[in-house]
């Protein structure tokens, strides 16, 4: 009684764990669908990296689901359940390959995002530095109107500055110093923004790369460790071949028995 009770309890526990595993796989499927639809591969590198982040961040859900479903190898399963196990075993390999592909796509996306950030920063720097170059040209011109334009530009850049507009020579010296100062500050600020964006990109992508790589390894290991689900048919074939060989040997041995039985009659 105790053995049958423990066996029944083990079966119920295994069924509950498998039910939870199937539920987790369905939740993972919903997450993957939400991340992938609508697909924009090759069009938007930000979307590609974001999709990799969602994939890798939710990878524990299908991993735990797979482990729960495969729990209890020796516990009784229906024929449909055994077939489904074989499908899920190959699905784990497919998921491992998908994570590797997504990892490669994420690396390409990060490179393209970094290039776009650099191009955008360079474009902004070119536009803003062009204004400083115009102010420098105005200083070179002795016309008072050009000097006034340079003074207005510096006042917009540094509202708290006090310019001596009554003395053109001193004003020109002040403006030259302020233009050089603001230009250097602008270059430094743009470089800091580029470095900050690059660090943020590396931080985000590096975490996603690591999670995707670990997920791929785990799924491939699940596929490797569940080879028993894929070898059921082969075992049956081997058993069938052995039974067939046994029947052939019985048939081959039958005539020898008959000859042994008929020999005494001939002697008589």
Description:
- This protein has one domain (2-234).
- Helix 1 packs antiparallel against helix 2 (45-57), helix 2 crosses helix 4 (79-140) and helix 3 runs parallel beside helix 6 (168-225).
- The chain is mainly α.
- 87% of the residues lie in helices and 0% in strands.
- The radius of gyration is 38 Å and the shape is rod-shaped.
- Residues 236-268 are annotated as: Disordered.
- Residues 258-268 have a biased composition (Acidic residues).
- The chain crosses the membrane at residues 12-32, 52-72, 84-111.
- Keywords: Membrane, Transmembrane, Transmembrane helix.
- N- and C-termini, Cα separation: 63 Å
Count of folded domains: 1
Q: What structural category characterises the helix and strand content?
A: mainly alpha
Main β-sheet: number of strands, strand sense, barrel status? none
Residues in β-strands, percent: under 5%
Shape: rod-shaped
Number of strands: 0
- The oligomeric state is single chain
What is Rg?
A: 38 Å
pLDDT < 50 runs, ≥5 residues: 232-237, 254-268
Work out the helix count.
8
Overall pLDDT score: 78
Helix content: over 70%
Q: What order do the SSEs take from the amino end to the carboxyl end, as H and E? A: HHHHHHHH
